[in-house]
Amino acid sequence: MGCSSCSTGKDGQPSGCKNNGTCGTDGCNKLTVFDWLSNMSLPNGEKPFDCVEVRFKNSRKEFFRNSENLSVSIGDIVATQAQSGHDIGMVTLVGELVRVQMKRKKVDYKDENLPKVHRKASQNDIDKWQKCRDREEEIKKRAREIAIILKLQMKISDVEFQGDGSKATFYYTAEDRVDFRQLIKDMAKAFGIRIEMRQIGYRQEAQRLGGIGSCGRELCCSTWLTDFRSVSTSAARYQQLSLNPQKLAGQCGKLKCCLNYELDMYLDALKDFPSQETKLFTEKGLAFCQKTDIFKGMLWFSYRDDPANWHTLTKEQVQEILEKNKKKEKVTSLEEYTVDNFVKEEKVFENVVGQDSLTRFDRPKQSRNRNNRKRNKAKSNSGKSNNKNTGNKIGNANPSKNKRRRNNPKRQQNNG
Questions:
Q1: 160 plus 108 within the same structural domain
Q2: Contact 195/188 with Cβ under 8 angstroms?
Q3: Are 97 and 40 in contact (CB under 8 A)?
Q4: What is the Cα–Cα distance from 374 to 287, expressed in whole angstroms?
Q5: CATH number at residue 165
Q6: pTM
Q7: Full 3-state SS string of 259-315
Q8: Coil, helix or strand for 84?
Q9: Residue 271: Cβ-neighbour burial (10 angstroms; 0-12, 13-18, 19+)
């Protein structure tokens, strides 16, 4: 995939870098394109495509012409042409898929003014580029302080250095137009580099900063979403969501992008569904729609004079009443239709586990008493047998003594 750690292992399974979604080589992200033509050889006599795709910091990608016929592959660090000096980036795609990507992004690959790849980056180029990237946080903090001193209504969200360290691009967000001419002068004097200011939207800012959404997952814009479509409040109305700005707005302050995910399904379901502004004319009075349920195909209506009592109608029944109203015919009342819709729901509990009783593990009390009786009875029987045995032993021990006691007249008189 994006890096060598994601290659296939010995057992045929992807080895992976074990970083739980964060690539250790910064190669596996939403900007990575899987080169499914990498294992295929070109036909005889066909030259490889001479353009490559190079990724820079964050989401910036550009196309360059490999005029020197360098043997570059995905993941190589290259020095590319810039307006002044050179820039350092990582190759993300080579081969015929670059032609497809250029056509999709409407970039003419026959253009002679297309920037070029100078060379593979040397260790000196990489060290210089790394030092520049280490300075970005410090410079961003200092630039924000200068903007606050000048009282500019803007927010500097990110800084990107050119590979050779001669230029820095400051990305900022602002609601109105900002005059930052004095800001550029002060920053150029403080940092000693050329300054370029580039305004971005609030969604692009959230994409660069990242974060956790209200759903508990990482932001879609920072993980996989690449195209930002406009989101309107009508998307929330179609899905019958409460228009609460605190719940509908994301971290960028705009409406959440996920409101568009299920919008097409709702629009398809609403094609043959009566509008929520539908009015029904009956002899009992005018009825207004109070609530709709697209999935169940039900609508709830109430009379203008009695808005507290709602009557449930199906989609077909509402369309039938509307056809009669078009013919200037009034139905008697809504109650005639709601009687058919009232179905008493019986709760049915199925025995999904296959067990009949919840007390199947409890032993009945009778069996316990029966066991106790058996034990007591066995103890009593054993006691009697022991007494008999001891009595026989005593009587047989000295029989002559027992005869003397029976024949002794003095003992009989005392007993009498």
A1: no
A2: yes
A3: no
A4: 78
A5: 3.30.300
A6: 0.63
A7: HHCCHHHHHHHCCCCCCCCCEEEECCEEEEEEEEECCCCEEEEEECCCCCCCEEEEH
A8: coil
A9: exposed
| Domain boundaries, position 146 | 130-200
> Which residue carries 């939403």 as its tokens?
30
At residue 399, what is the residue type? P
> Based on the domain organization, do 234 and 313 belong to the same domain?
no
Q: Which of 151, 181, 200 lies at the terminal end of a domain, its last residue?
A: 200
- pLDDT, one tens digit for every residue, the chain (416 residues): 345 555 555 555 555 555 444 454 544 567 777 777 777 787 877 888 889 999 998 778 899 999 888 888 888 999 999 988 899 999 988 888 899 999 988 898 888 889 999 999 999 999 999 999 999 999 999 999 999 999 999 999 999 999 988 899 999 999 888 898 999 999 999 998 999 999 998 888 888 888 899 889 989 988 888 888 889 888 998 888 888 888 899 988 899 999 999 999 898 888 888 888 889 998 888 999 888 888 888 889 999 888 888 888 888 889 889 999 988 888 888 888 875 565 555 666 565 555 556 666 666 655 556 666 767 777 676 665 555 554 444 444 455 545 455 555 545 444 44
Q: Look at the chain and report how many structural domains it folds into.
A: 4
**Amino acid identity at 373:** R
Together in a domain, 158 and 196: yes
Cα–Cα distance, 89 to 129 (Å, whole number): 10
Are 273 and 315 in contact by the 8 Å Cβ rule? The answer is: yes
Residue 400 corresponds to which amino acid?
S
Residue 49 sits in the same domain as residue 71:
yes
In a domain, 68, yes or no: yes
Q: Name the domain boundary from 121, 142, 166.
A: 121
Residue 200 CA to residue 57 CA, distance in Å, equals 15
Same domain, 151 and 178: yes
Residue 90 forms part of a structural domain: yes
The answer to whether residue 401 is domain-embedded is: no
Among 198, 233, 202, smallest CA distance to 219 is for 202
Residues 148 and 193 in one domain: yes
Helix or strand run (H / E) with residue 247: helix 245-248
**Nearest-angstrom CA–CA distance, 62 and 363:** 76
Tokens of 300: 């709830």
In terms of domains, do 193 and 213 share one? Answer: no
For residue 326, is it within any domain? yes
**Residues 169, 171, 172, 177: what is their CA dihedral angle, to the nearest 10 degrees?**
60
Residues 104 and 186 in one domain: no
